[in-house]
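Review form for a predicted model. The reviewer records the input and the model, then writes brief findings.
Reviewer: anonymous (R2)
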Amino acid sequence: MKAPLLPRSRFWIVMWAVCLISCSPLPVIKPTDQTAATVRKCRQPFLDTPYRFVHAIEAALPGGGSGTVLGITVFNPESKAIHSAIFTLEGFVLFDARYDGKLVVSRALPPFNAERFAEYMMEDIRLIFLPPEGRLLTAGTLEDGSAICRYEGNQETIIDVIVHRDDSWEISTYRNRYERLRTISGFSVRDGIPGMLELTGFESRNYSLRLKVISAEPLSRETIP
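Model under review:
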């Protein structure tokens, strides 16, 4: 009879460690008598005019793979349209997709042609650049004084938007009160633009990305491609 892959004690240690990472309960929200001001604070991460961003993207993927690519994102908050492309450092197009009510993928080379990659990527981009569309459930503060707004997402998910006192922010999605799906953090914020973004996916979306802003250019609605 084959020996188990892991001794029982080590198996439960591994499972406990995995749960510590993904089984993160929702933060406790302290009520506030300034709900309107808190909701305005929670809108700070989201720009209200069209922009073109260029990021250097460092990716750490399951299995130890990693690499650096360039990402270009154009979005329009009014129409909620998004155009995103990924390039090699030499300028070769690896991925190109648009979302304007419907996802259209123009190009997707391995590994960016993986099942549901484009869908998940657009979900991440929408979380970063567009405010949650779902119903506001509650707003208040955390123990450290950070503003937090909790929204009802689609497919029975919960979205937390947290803005800290130094204007850095976090956006997390949960499947329920204890199962975190992803967290996006914005750091070094100047004029509403985060100089660095960190994305972490959990469960089946296990990945880690760091996006360093190279340029952020406001666009007129007439010049949006």
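Findings: The CA atoms of residues 7 and 13 lie 10 Å apart.
Further findings: DSSP finds three helices and 13 strands in the chain.
Recommendation: see findings above.
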